[in-house]
């Protein structure tokens, strides 16, 4: 089964969020499950550097004018990788999608059209003599790959399009369509047109042979107006080819028994190390010595993540004897709000604005609870990292959070399946009630230890996900 896996970011070379973690682990898991997987990514400087010695496979004229397209081969995350260079289109350091002021690059439609176009060119052997059976693309940046393949018609690879976040769609003015080198009839409601504009996410959703998303619950939610971001009608019409496959955890990276970033290693049976990690974290963050619970947050600061609710709940949380450590970056208002709270509650609330991979590991290791109060959450990885590090996730009942956290309700407590705290509504009252339950349980140390052990025993390895994707590929290409 030859699989071309097209995406934009990959841990550890270039990461803006969970997509990079997935891309850093799933291709290798697919290879372990028996697939011949090759990556296709833009040659962003950090990615080109990580891919080792690059060998030119081909240079070809760009369909979008401008510089020649060069495809080079290297290796990333343990699998072969094709990287695309095209003059200065991808030769920009830093965030792959936005400039240093956080503004979308004005030529993003061309940059990511090129990525989709290049994926499609593998079909006819233009790029290499390796022709994929499946082109598997991820999120809007690669949404045009299924469209270019559909335009080609005939004998072509089957296409799988995975939605990691419907909230980002790659939406451009109508006039960009003429730059995309697609047949005119593709700009239609039965194509990639969306409210008079070009929408790369819609292209993926409309043209792919199969759509997946990163948890079963999100697969159901996106078919409703509440979570569909305008695509719910289309997704309902494609329900027969839409499924959810839960992400996994890369245990080579997220494991408290081996993690090089944390103060002391520990495991489910040797939890003294966790207490020392907590003490070290408190000290590093200037938090007071305390016997109350330490709540951690590692997150993009966007409205998706619901952290405005945490901000509103902070005074009560601190009054109840809790402390908070937050690492995050994003919307200015949230950054300012948390910084002000850190000043107001000095010694109880510590805030670091920025992106820091190692500090993130230390927060998971040192925290008692990890807060993930998302408004929507396609899968969410941080609650799974929390479980692995024995920090109980306190999450909202949405998306992948539902599929990964067992609420400490009477039923789960009795059955031994409780691993955290789940609340229903995106409001402070609902969050507050879950926080109260966490404080109550904290005062029952034996119960807390029990939950923590169950949490650490959860197995979210990538192997089952890889098997599910392979089964899907086989449905599409039984003979490959
Ligand atoms: P999303 O992809 O929506 O941001 P996920 O939970 O899937 O959410 O993945 C987020 C990833 O990004 C995790 O690996 C998390 O540890 C990491 N992360 C988020 N914010 C930061 C930050 N400020 N510093 C370091 N890592 C972060
Ligand atoms: C997106 C989603 C997140 C998911 C990640 C990886 O960034 O917001 O929920 O875990 O993709 O699939």
Short description:
This protein is α/β, with parallel strands linked by helices and 480 residues long.
The domain tally reads 2
CATH architecture of the largest domain: 3-Layer(aba) Sandwich
- Catalogue the unreliable spans: none
- CATH topology tier name of the largest domain: Rossmann fold
Structure description:
With 480 residues, the protein is of the alpha/beta class. The protein folds into 2 domains: 2-248 and 462-476, Rossmann fold, CATH 3.40.50; 272-456, 3-Layer(aba) Sandwich (Rossmann fold), CATH 3.40.50. Helix content is 36%, strand content 19%. It is built from 17 helices and 18 strands. The chain has a 9-stranded mixed sheet, with helices on both faces. Strands 15-14-13-16-17-18 form a 6-stranded parallel sheet, sandwiched between helices. α1 (18-32) crosses α17, α4 crosses α5 and α8 (272-285) packs across α11 (357-366). The structure holds adenosine-5'-diphosphate and alpha-D-glucopyranose. Alpha-D-glucopyranose is lined by residues 17-19, 22, 164-165, 214, 247, 377-381, 400.
Indicate the topology.
Blueprint: E1 2-6, H1 18-32, E2 36-42, H2 45-50, E3 55-60, E4 69-76, E5 79-86, H3 108-121, E6 134-138, H4 144-152, E7 158-163, E8 171-172, E9 193-194, E10 197-199, H5 200-207, E11 210-213, H6 216-221, H7 232-237, E12 242-244, H8 272-285, E13 294-301, H9 307-319, E14 323-330, H10 332-344, E15 349-353, H11 357-366, E16 369-372, H12 382-388, E17 392-396, H13 399-404, H14 410-415, E18 421-423, H15 428-442, H16 445-457, H17 463-476
Parallel strand pairs: 1-2, 1-6, 2-5, 6-7, 7-11, 11-12, 13-14, 13-16, 14-15, 16-17, 17-18
Antiparallel strand pairs: 3-4, 4-5, 8-10, 9-10
Helix pairs in contact: 1-17, 3-4, 4-5, 8-11, 9-10, 9-15
The protein binds adenosine-5'-diphosphate and alpha-D-glucopyranose.
């Amino acid at each position: 089964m030859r699989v071309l896996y097209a995406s934009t970011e990959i841990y550890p070379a270039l990461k803006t969020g969970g997509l990079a973690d997935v891309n850093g682990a799933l291709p290798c898991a697919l290879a372990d499950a028996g697939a011949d997987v090759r990556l296709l990514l833009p040659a962003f400087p950090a990615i080109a550097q990580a891919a080792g010695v690059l060998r030119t496979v081909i240079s070809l004229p760009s369909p979008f004018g401008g510089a020649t397209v060069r495809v080079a081969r290297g290796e990333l995350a343990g699998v072969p990788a094709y990287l695309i260079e095209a003059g200065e289109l991808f030769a920009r350091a830093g965030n792959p999608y936005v400039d240093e002021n956080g503004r979308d690059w004005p030529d993003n439609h061309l940059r990511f059209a090129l990525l989709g176009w290049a994926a499609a060119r593998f079909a006819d052997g233009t790029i290499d003599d390796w022709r994929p059976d499946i082109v598997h693309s991820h999120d809007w940046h690669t949404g045009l790959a299924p469209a270019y393949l559909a335009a080609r018609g005939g004998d072509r690879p089957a296409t799988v399009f995975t939605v990691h976040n419907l909230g980002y769609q790659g939406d451009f003015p109508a006039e960009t369509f003429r730059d995309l080198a697609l047949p005119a009839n593709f700009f239609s409601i039965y194509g990639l047109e969306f409210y008079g504009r070009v929408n790369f996410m819609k292209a993926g959703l409309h043209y792919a042979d199969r759509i997946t998303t990163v948890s079963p619950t999100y697969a159901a939610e996106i078919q409703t107006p509440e979570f569909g971001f305008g695509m719910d009608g289309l997704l309902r019409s494609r329900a027969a080819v839409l499924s959810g496959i839960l992400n996994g955890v890369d245990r080579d990276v997220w494991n408290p028994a081996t993690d090089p970033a944390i103060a002391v290693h520990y495991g489910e049976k040797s939890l003294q190390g966790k207490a020392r990690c907590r003490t070290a974290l408190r000290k590093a963050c200037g938090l007071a010595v305390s016997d109350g619970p330490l709540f951690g947050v590692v997150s993009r600061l966007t409205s998706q993540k619901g952290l405005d609710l945490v901000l509103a709940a902070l005074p009560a949380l601190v009054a109840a004897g809790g402390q908070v450590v937050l690492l995050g970056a994003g919307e200015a208002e949230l950054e300012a709000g948390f910084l002000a709270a850190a000043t107001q509650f000095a010694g109880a609330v510590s805030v670091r604005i920025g992106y820091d991979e190692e500090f993130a590991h230390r927060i998971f290791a040192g925290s008692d609870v990890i807060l993930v109060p998302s408004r929507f959450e396609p899968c969410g990885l941080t609650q799974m990292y929390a479980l692995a590090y024995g920090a109980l996730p306190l999450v909202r009942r949405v998306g992948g959070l539902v599929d990964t956290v067992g609420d400490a309700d009477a039923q789960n407590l009795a059955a031994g399946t409780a691993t955290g705290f789940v609340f229903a509504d995106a409001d402070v009252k609902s969050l507050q009630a879950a926080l109260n339950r966490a404080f109550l349980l904290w005062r029952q140390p034996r119960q807390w230890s029990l939950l923590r052990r169950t949490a650490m025993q959860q197995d979210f390895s990538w192997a089952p996900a890889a098997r599910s994707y392979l089964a899907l590929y086989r449905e599409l290409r039984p003979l490959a």
